[in-house]
Amino acid sequence: MKSDDSMDRGIQFTGGDSSTGQYQQDHKSHLQKKFQCLIEGIAQQGDTRLLHEIYTDLYITEGGRGAVNDEHEVRQIERASWREAARGRPIKCSDIFKPLSGQDKPIRTVVTKGVAGIGKTVSVQKFILDWAEGKANQDVHFIFPLPFRELNLMKEKKLSLMDLIQHFFPEIKDPRVFSSSEHRVMFIFDGLDECRLPLDFHSDPKCCDVTEPASVDVLLTNLIKGDLLPSALLWITTRPAAANQIPPECVDQVTEIRGFNDPQKEEYFRKRISDENLASRTITHLKSSRSLYIMCHIPVFCWISATVVEKTSKESDKVEMPRTLTQMYTHSLVIQTDMKHVKYTERKETDEEVIYKLGKLAFQQLEKGNLIFYEEDLRECGIDVTEASVYSGVCTQIFREEAGLYQGRVFSFVHLSIQEFLAALYVFLCFSNRQRNMPDQQQSSQLSALFRAATLHDLHKTAVDLALQSKNGHLDLFLRFLLGLSLESNQNLLKHLLPQSSSQSDSSEQTVQYVKQKIRDEDDSGRRINLFYCLNELNHHAVVEHINKWSLGALHVEMLLAGDRETKRLCFQMAGEQLDEFGLQKYIKTPEEDQTELLSADEVLQKLLPVVTTSTLATLDNCNLTDMSCSYLASALTSHSSNLTQLDLSENELLDSGVELLCSALCHQNCTLEELQLFNCNLTDKSCSYLASALISHSSNLRRLYLNYNPLISASAVEALCALVKDPHCKLEYLTTDWGAVEC
Questions:
Q1: Looking at beta carbons, which pairs linking 517-524 to residues 24 or more positions away fall under 8 Å?
Q2: How many other CB atoms are there within 10 angstroms of residue 70's CB atom?
Q3: What is the pLDDT of residues 122-148, one digit of tens each?
Q4: Which residues 6+ apart lie within 8 Å of 65 measured at CB?
């Protein structure tokens, strides 16, 4: 984008139109006031903070050409956390309309994907605030944010685009804002997944005039297609599963918000929690529970975790910090339903009744796939819309109410996972109090079988089976919560809120055995992984026990050797521990041991890499590995999850080509390797040259290097290595070769 001084100042337009310039000033002032604060919770009672005080950069990348991933979003987050390196070029939020290198075509329409709670709306807020404060994108003269949740309230209206803008932004009084070619305008449509308008790109009538009345959906489709205001910039945010509503030919660039990476998680907690020691303890605790730390990719979950940890730390040192998702959300529910801070003169319902009705709403809308609710949805669940603020008041940071343009009201849970937790709680309550609370469910409902369960084990079996039947895993998190709520420890937390619930924990062992059987029977790695997490929610530590007992027990190795890398990685990450040592030799079979088709040593190592990255010492000596294995190891060493500090590759025909691959990894910032043994690997002076370059890299941590029994390495090459000690970047402390040992 081009800009000049007048645009950067944002005061005057070419041609000296002072009235339009004043509109811009008023508009910027309006947006600055609207977006300068970040509200955590609901608008009436949430925790209001200045955006610049708490905002943490998100990881945004080029997001492909709109491929749709409709599996459960938590499953997407978990998969992303296992990938060794996120693909796609990183993009700054303020630069999403700038062409990437190699792109010649101007960008008009950008679609930004991201799972629920990942930071799409906050990114929009930051983009607008930076523009309103004159910090970025000053070649744009007007930005008009139009959230779909508010546009939904106008679906029966017929009005022109100018009318629509003036209703949202009354300071814009002149149609010349749109008619002049000198004015660059941007529309931001946040939350396509929340859209309840019929966007028919094929049949909607054409509309080219900003003063021509039409339905809101027709205005939107014509804007997106470029028939209406073809020079306007458009930014559309959406959850991945809804991205395909926009025809690919209408999209110039797709970006993806991937939430917080590990350093950004820590930055958020240190900004959010003022007590530095508590912030550090919070980070350490969350890292110790892999399922929780993975969820911290989602900013909303970081906020939930920070709220819970702050509260529990103040109550008592004896309060156990949550270690599972169910524990975290149960603590959160107890905290957020604290009635001491909410004052109403009349309360006709108990807290239990309020939670029950909200749970019913969560369950019914989860079945329909809805995240946003309106007054008719509340009425269906027995919620009096005239007292809806009572519900959002009881659950100050669980259920939120927002005022729409025409005084209509929009409702939602703060995050999809909270909706799933309350839906599971609703089902558990209906089961525990089934004589009193039997719901009126349609028999055609997919989940109606849950309410016919006679025992807790039957309920769990039914839920497990329904989750496994789902093609996109949309019941995965619901299942984890439902199983976790059967634990007495979680029920005890809810006792004062839900006194009618009764403990049924005696059936847990039956459920554990059923889940284990399903793990053995299941072929899909995504479903199997969720079942492992279910065992974790049931406080069953079979995974950890198997790892410690078997040190890569047969079941898990079989999974890996069958190609199920993700399950194996999950096992070790869920354990929350790293292996001290991994040895490869015992997993390489010989023809005498196995007459079936054998894997080569390189192939076995490739399949067991998730284990290698979890170990601190990997002994891979005398395994008939080749330089191909070095390429696999280089990938493992540069993984952000790698724990390797010692690596023994002796007695393998690695050659110089293999060492060259290893040295590329030694220079990577993620590599933690401190000791490398390369005895008898058929190396020459070339290997010494590669190692020399790696050792003086800023990122290399190598301190001990063993090169004995490589007779083709000359004395001069060794001398060159020894001379590196004087380099300030070299951390080498000990070197052994056929020419002797050197203490550096």
A1: 518/464, 518/468, 520/555, 522/468
A2: 16
A3: 889 999 999 999 999 999 999 999 998
A4: 248, 251, 254
